[in-house]
């Protein structure tokens, strides 16, 4: 495509050519000179040579329209625009707008900026509506452009347009926020922003410790800040497009944002208006399906992040109404596929990682609706190339339904059995595992992961159907998408439990070499899951199998992993060691293969750590030590001789988690029961163990824990379960009444 000159006529021709035509966009994007000229037209259009060429404003508006169209659908075109600094040019053009400029010009510029913001946010992620392909060549440039959009100077340019007199301009700015705000950092940037005039007022109003938004109902930052307050005001508009855009923008700001959510559930006291949440919920009854969906998502993010999160008694009616709306849209064959997909993903946002909300939605028929969707669009027996000509919208609906089914099945055995038996979805899930659409493959693997948590399904249906072996083959494919591999590996981890008949079969089919390969990957989730798989393989298995597994993993590698700076990796490494030490032959193997001094130094250092983020690592370290104490007396003597042992045990004994105190108390009881192990009573007293044991026994009925987290026995009341108290009392009895340890 050759553009001889840039004028109003040629720009209109270009716009009509590229709309809905990806190949034309790519061709045009390769004309660097034209793209540069197009971007320059936003601020410095060439003067028209005649009246037919249009005014300069007409050219600027048309250039903005072309730029908006080029932003969508082609990464090559987006790359060309970013190289031409289109984002900066849009911002500069908006900053130079004058009060007398037309609404058409403002609307075109704001729409162009919104299109660019949406495009770069989709590349950078995280994705909002299903998985997108990874590995974009423009990711770095897109990330830089996105950071530019959230720079304070940029916010000063486009956020004031949220309250522009033109609804189209307001819609574009709200849509920009809805699409581009995806991280906590960006949410904070938007919610903390104030117009320059209000910034001065807020600065003058502060008296050091005060926060005007709290102490003064007229403060500029009240009701969640300037942006949230004005988005809430836009909900009262009668323009459904404006309502929809404002709802999605509020949803983006309130997601995982407890501060904003807490304010949005409160009534607007200075104006006798209902809370923003009430306004949002009322819009879930709108005549517009698009507004209903936006209202449902907005209400979900406010409720889940708000002060009553997980309290169904407080929010049950709200959630019940939301689920009813979503179920109706999901099941409606009269709605377009994209709308039904969006409803599925919004339901997913409601229930994900919350067992009670999963159960709540299940009881109201959501699983029935989702299963009906999957059955209606998925063949149980896959014909050759069945997905080749499938519309993207249909693949997205299947992905959305399966993703939500996997989330709903994650916690409850009855739901998992319904998926496998009552709804007979396993053959359909199996069909989806080879689908060309990456999101469908990912969602189907997540379904296998969820239902394989059921022992009954794991032992029978997953084996009989061949689904277990198929998800393993997905995991073995080196060319598979990283996220699909991760989901498949999570499912494989469940297949490696000792009660699953597939465990030895998978080891014969090349499991161990693939796990080692994945353990060396850069992706943290894959590395963690690989260690999780090793952990499961080593539990309740024979000594020879342990040796075979460690022949692949290597003891030297396990030693390095136990000292890894990533606490998650460290936790799983200790868990691997803990499972090896589940019996005496395994303990013997550890003492034979590892340097004992190094091992004990690593264990005691973790057990003594004051870092509150180390809690899971401490638990695995002390449980590993507890298992090692079940070895021979010579092994026990080697353990007890370590100079830091008693202090590290006392540290765990004083921990505020009973799960950590329990193995520590058991180790101490093992020490004091045997006079041959070495420490005198004075050593134990000096380490603070006796006073800690007494404290546990004295306060065994208390329930309070100090707010400091990791508590000292002198400053906290420890809540103990019965087993810890019994162990502590037995240890005290031995210390005070039995054997040589009773003498100094």
Briefly characterize the structure:
With 744 residues, the protein is an all-alpha fold. It has 45 helices and no strands.
Describe the structure.
By secondary structure, the chain is an all-alpha fold. The chain has a domain at 8-180: Alpha Horseshoe (Leucine-rich Repeat Variant), CATH 1.25.10. Helix 36 packs parallel to helix 39. The longest helix has 22 residues, at 103-124. The termini are far apart. Residues 212-216, 702-719 and 739-744 have low confidence and may be disordered. It is found in: Cytoplasm; Nucleus. Its main location: cytoplasm. This is ARM repeat-containing protein.
Q: State which percent range the strand residues make up.
A: under 5%
C-alpha end-to-end distance:
95 Å
Mean pLDDT: 89
Rough outline: globular
> Would you tell me which CATH topology of the domain at 8-180 applies?
Leucine-rich Repeat Variant
SSE-based structural type? mainly alpha
- Helix count from the secondary structure assignment: 45
Largest sheet: none
Q: What is the fourth-level CATH superfamily of the domain at 8-180?
A: Leucine-rich Repeat Variant
What CATH architecture of the domain at 8-180 would you give?
Alpha Horseshoe
Number of separate strands: 0
Query: Uncertain runs with pLDDT below 50, 5 residues or more?
Result: 212-216, 702-719, 739-744
